[in-house]
Write a structure and sequence with these properties.
50% strand; Nuclear Transport Factor 2, Chain: A; 3 helices; alpha+beta; single chain; 130 residues
């Protein structure tokens, strides 16, 4: 059964993750991603925690904008899922990049903190102009 206290702590963890991604804060990312965590990119490729940390550390991936449009959170005592929708801008391997993405992240919680154990990103079409 969902628990409001866990929901709010997971929402805070997701927001810490977003701030760490934007700042390329490798130490914070290392704390928020489980050592066995895996990420499926929009192209279907799998990436490990170390792949993600190296991309930030080396400057191959640099975010200059991360704008949250929507965030849904489901949490129980030890597991949770976040659904993020938003726009990311920056560069990847030196090339400018901009995408509207939906991230689904699975989280695990021990007594003290949430960690991402799996994530998937999908490119979402920009909203039509009014």
């Amino acid at each position: 059964m969902p628990n409001d206290d866990h929901t709010e702590s997971l929402r805070a963890a997701e927001r810490r993750l977003q701030a760490a991604q934007l700042a390329s804060d490798v130490d914070a990312l290392a704390e928020l991603i489980d050592d066995k965590g895996q990420f499926t990119g929009p192209d279907g490729s799998l990436h490990s925690k170390q792949d993600d940390l190296r991309a930030h550390e080396s400057g191959r991936q640099v975010l200059t904008r991360l704008e949250e449009e929507e965030l849904q959170v489901l949490a129980t005592a030890h597991t949770g899922v976040t659904w993020f929708l938003g726009t990311l801008e920056g560069s990847f391997e030196g090339q400018p990049a901009r995408a509207r993405l939906r991230y689904t992240r699975a989280w695990s919680r021990d007594q003290t903190s949430w960690k991402i154990i799996a994530a998937h990103a999908t490119v979402v079409a920009d909203e039509p102009s009014p």
